[in-house]
Amino acid sequence: MTAPESQFLPAITHQLPEEYTQLLGELNREVSTTNPEDVLQFCANFFNKKLEEQRVRFMSAHTSHPQDIRGISPSPSNQDHLMDSDQDDDDEEEEPDDIEEDEGHDEFPTSLPIPLTVPVNYNRGRRTSVSAESMAPTTGQAFDKVVIPKTSEQRARIEASIANNFLFKNLDEDQYGDVVNAMTEKHVQNGEKVIEQGGVGDYFYVVESGAFDCFISKNGGPQQKVTAYIAGGSFGELALMYNAPRAATIQATTDSVLWALDRVTFRGILMENTSRKRRMYESFLEEVPLLASLEPYERHKIADALESVYYDDGEAVVKQGDVGNNFFLIESGEATVLKQNENGVEREVNYLTKGGYFGGMF
Ligand SMILES: Nc1ncnc2c1ncn2[C@@H]1O[C@@H]2COP(=O)(O)O[C@H]2[C@H]1O
After folding, report:
1. Of 112-121, 175-184, 194-203, which gets the smallest average pLDDT?
2. Measuring from atom 10 of ligand 1, which residue has the nearest CA?
3. Domains parsed from the chain with CATH numbers
4. Which range has the worst mean pLDDT, 6-15, 124-133, 185-194, 198-207?
5. How confident is the model at residue 5 (pLDDT cuts 50, 70, 90)?
6. Which of 235, 249, 293 to mutate to test the pocket of ligand 1 (most atoms within 8 A of CB)?
7. 108 alpha carbon to ligand 1 midpoint, in Å?
8. For the region Disordered, what residue ranges are annotated (predicted)?
9. Does the annotation list 246 as a binding residue?
10. Is 185 exposed, middle or buried (0-12, 13-18, 19+ CB in 10 A)?
């Protein structure tokens, strides 16, 4: 019988950095007291937590007002910062070929796709990706398609669950089929945590039935509820998009059913469109007075729902008496609001420019 690998560890301890042996000692103690079901995930969470703590220590030592740093759009350059915040570290890891070096940028990014209080996966300027994937979307690149066999009844349930979810709009037939093929059913009990803040991103989830609360703990403080999800909602995209630790904890508030999409399929099919829209509308949405009080992540969700529509000068966007299904924000251009009185005489009652809105319930 082969001896377990751990049996050889003491023999090489003298070559190992002290910090490493201390960390492993701590990890061993936590594993033996917790006895986790998923050991790999537990270890990944342990190291992510350590990185987060180290980063918070570093940030408080190097920035006077870390809370002033705002989230911005996940543009490719910002994504690069997120991954490539490397400096002249002598302990730098091997880089995947497809991640470009960005020499001359600041030691720390001044812009993040999510609020700074959310743990992001970099520390001390060291690259700490949770996987070797490039930040570039994998759309268009070949990837091994995941096919989880399922009944037509299951397929119908997936289709109903994603029917009104904006992230699944604009998929062509093949992409739609690939997404449905790759999804896997997950039953969750009331109180179960599907995602834990700081954990490693493995799946993106769509809610078929049930309900979930989403909590964020800032700087190790108490968890605060930031949003909730019901049927048709989805969560868990950020860690997959940015190779970052989970930004929030998601807990079932009743027995629920989820459809989970693996990270490779998510990145290969859904990520490109999602990050493009969030990037495209971010700065515009920041300038809309109606949305000024929203958190960056809430603006991302609005961006998911937006579609640009072009109108010629003089063309009617909506007509008086029409049933209103859409809410409009003026991205560029101007519009007049005309109203007919009971005699059929039309007069201008409002004039709207960029950032103005109409339609829907307004
Ligand atoms: N305010 C928020 N900030 C970050 N993530 C949020 C927020 N509200 C909801 N979430 C979701 O919570 C998820 C936790 O896992 P992810 O970071 O992968 O993706 C996150 C988002 O889908």
Report:
1. 112-121
2. 248
3. 17-127 (no CATH), 152-271 (2.60.120.10)
4. 124-133
5. very low
6. 235
7. 22
8. 60-120
9. yes
10. middle
Q: Does residue 362 carry a pLDDT above 50?
A: no
Q: How far apart are CA 270 and CA 31, in angstroms?
A: 35
For residue 131, count other CB atoms closer than 10 A to its CB. 13
Q: What are phi and psi of 214, to 5 degrees?
A: -120, 125
Residue with tokens 């803040």: 197
**Ligand 1 proximal residues by C-beta, below 6 Å:** 114, 118, 195, 201, 214, 216, 226-227, 235-239, 246-248, 250, 295, 297
Tokens read off for 57? 């220590």
- Find out whether 267 is annotated in a ligand binding site: no
Give the C-alpha separation, 189 to 235, whole Å.
Answer: 17
Average pLDDT over residues 108-114: 29
Q: Look at the block and give the residue holding tokens 């896997």.
A: 184
Tell which residue, 96, 170, 111, has the closest CA to residue 139.
Answer: 170
Q: Which of 82, 251, 297 to mutate to test the pocket of ligand 1 (most atoms within 8 A of CB)?
A: 297
Taking the CA of residue 239 as reference, the ligand 1 atom at the shortest distance is: 18
Confidence of residue 256 (pLDDT cuts 50, 70, 90): very high
Q: Which residue has the least CA distance to atom 16 on ligand 1?
A: 236
For helices 18-34 and 39-62, angle between their N-to-C axes, nearest 10 degrees: 130
Distance in angstroms (rounded) separating the CA atoms of residues 203 and 195: 9
For the complex shown, is ipTM > 0.90? yes
